[in-house]
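User: Before I run my own analysis I want an independent prediction to cross-check against. Here's the chain; please return only the structure tokens and, at the end, one sentence I can use as a sanity check.
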Amino acid sequence: MRRLLTFFIAAVISIMPVYAQDAHVHDGHAQATGGQDWAKARLEKSPRHQEWVKVKQGNREVQCFVVYPEVKDKAPAVLLIHEIFGMSDWVRSTADQVAEAGYIAIAPDLLSGTGPNGGGTSEYPDQGAITKAVSMLPADQVTADLNAVENYVAALPSCNGRVAVAGFCWGGGQAFRMATNNKDIKAAFVFYGPGPDKAEDIARINAPVYGFYAGNDARVTATVPKSTDLMKQVGKTYEPVIYEGAGHGFMRAGEAPDANEANMKAHDAAWLRFKELLKRL
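Assistant: Structure tokens:
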């Protein structure tokens, strides 16, 4: 009996590492995006229609998450650009909150087709791999992908043709840059992302740019004075607001269960401002 028990324990121990590895492999995306169960739970409770669509761009297909508002009339749309962490439950939850406010929300996974087996963010093994892949995306490809997504959402039967762009972290910088490359967007909302540093790029901007920056984020917020000067030189609308005490990524961090007071305060104030500005579309 003792020999049998010893054999059983040894067998269980030998299986445990294999099981743990298997769980890590299949749950790689959840670990890479920080286990955002709170964001996923919000999505699951949403009454709004959510769907994944493929947007054709040349020989690429960009996977996009779309959420529709429950409204009677055609609505403007908001194109959401993810952080350097790629597509996540938080990004999708943010899209749902934008739809809750009355706008069609579309969030492209800009890593579409770049991951293992031709997949996107969810196919990368860990957060380090995702961050590296996002940071290495070709600028021209990002521009073409975003323009294709903007064209797609503007042409939806339920869209009134007016599209704004909003981005966070890496996506904030891309939102600012999109304003220099797309004359059709009606507004750009830059959440803690740097602006273009060339006057000729700034001169191409047609839409107003609204900035949301963290007080404790000198790496990005220190670029605001130069962006202000460049935008002023060519007569462009740029309205940055700095949320004192908040850290980089406060829109996500301020919504998490373990959020500190400064990030929560910045998150709430920024959401109110964002929704008020969206009413101008």
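Sanity check: The radius of gyration is 21 Å.
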